[in-house]
Amino acid sequence: MTTPTTTRTVLLKHHLKALTLPTVATECEKVAARSAAANVDHLGYLLQVCEWELIERERKAAERRLKAARFPAPKTLAEFDFAARPSVNKPLILDLARGDYLGKRENVPLAGLSGTGKTHRASARAMAACAQGKRVRF
After folding, report:
1. How far is CA 121 from CA 9, 28, 62, 70, 130, in A?
2. Same domain, yes or no, for 25 and 85?
3. pLDDT tens-digit profile of 49-59?
4. Which residues form the IstB-like ATP-binding domain (predicted)?
C-alpha cells in the first residue's frame, strides 16, 4: 500500500467513525477489493457497503430488543407441541403470531390450567413481535 492510500484509508475510517458507520468502516476495504475484481462501479460499491451497514444495524437492533424483553427462555411456536394440546386453536395462535392485534392495540389474554403452555405461547408471540421490530417486555 502506498503512503497516499494509507493516509486516505486512515482519514476515511476516521470520517466513518465520526458518522457512526462502524460496519462500513470495517468492511469498506474488503468490499472495495471485491468490487474492483468484479469491475463494479462506485455506485455499486456504495450500495454494497450501505447494505452491509443496514443489515448489521437491523441485526443489532433485534438483539437489543430480545435482550431488553428479558425472556426467561427463548421459545418459538415451531417448538410448541400442538398435538399434545389439542384444545389449543393452532390456526388462531399462528394468526396471533403475525401481530396484527398490536397495530390495533387489542389485548389478547391467556387463560387456562397450569401446564397448558400459556407461558410458551406468550413467549413465542413476544419473540415474533421482536422479530417484527416491536419492543416487548416479558
Report:
1. 50, 42, 20, 16, 14
2. no
3. 999 999 999 99
4. 15-138
For the whole model, what pTM was predicted?
0.66
**Distance from chain centroid for Cα 117:** 26
Task: Supply the range of the domain harboring residue 98.
Answer: 70-138
Task: Note whether 128 and 87 are same-domain residues.
Answer: yes
Single out the residue in 48, 64, 80 at which a domain terminates: 64
For residues 48 and 62, what is the distance between their CA atoms, to the nearest angstrom? 21
